[in-house]
Design goal:
- By secondary structure, the protein is of the alpha/beta class.
- The protein is built from nine helices and eleven strands.
- Strand 6 and strand 7 (149-150) form a beta hairpin.
- Helix 1 packs across helix 2 (54-61), helix 1 (28-46) packs antiparallel against helix 4 (87-97) and helix 2 packs across helix 3.
- The protein is globular, with a radius of gyration of 21 Å.
Amino acid sequence: MEKNVTALEPSAEAVPGDKDSASKQIPPAAVARMTLYLRALNSLLAEGVERVSSDALAEASGVSSSTLRKDLSYVGSYGTRGVGYEVQYLSRHIAAALGLTHDWKVAIVGAGNLGKALARYGGFESRGFDVVAILDADPMVIGNEVGWLRVSDAANLELVLQRTGTNMVVLALPAAVAQDVCDRVINAGIRSILSFAPVLLQVPPHVNLRKVDMATELQILAYHAQRAQTPGQAL
């Protein structure tokens, strides 16, 4: 039996639809929150939930209802007064707004522990990302199997990217070689790069670079943990 969320959308909370919202530029902070909404919606879909209120979706996403309704206005509000949001429709619409309906082919450069873990991660495919290649420069690693992939020689980086139709690259590399490889990736025509390298990479304006620095994130956690342990400190 399919489940439905019992809390329905109050009429005072419904946000009017906006015909021009699909063409609006979504602020970076809202884009980040959209991924949270999509994850929550997909969880609801897996549970058989058909409709959800803004309060329930906001709570599942860890944001306020007002923030959620404002964010959804960027992609067009599809809430119905007294009924709520249709989960499947809203999920598809957010996915389209985030570009997840495109064919994204990902190559991972660096077959160390991190690179291999990323290549084996099953969550990419379910979110629309197809890992098509993993590369490394170490002769002891080249040719080894990682999941269903075989490690390619990084010396053939440009050929591998072209052959596989890669349009996104993940850099799981040491700092010393990251910039040189990043330059090669850009020269090969890649415009979307995710870097785990512990160094600030320089890229031209037309390239989208996202940096994941786990040490920095741990330092931020340490700061908040310290404040939480200090009497009288506001969180």
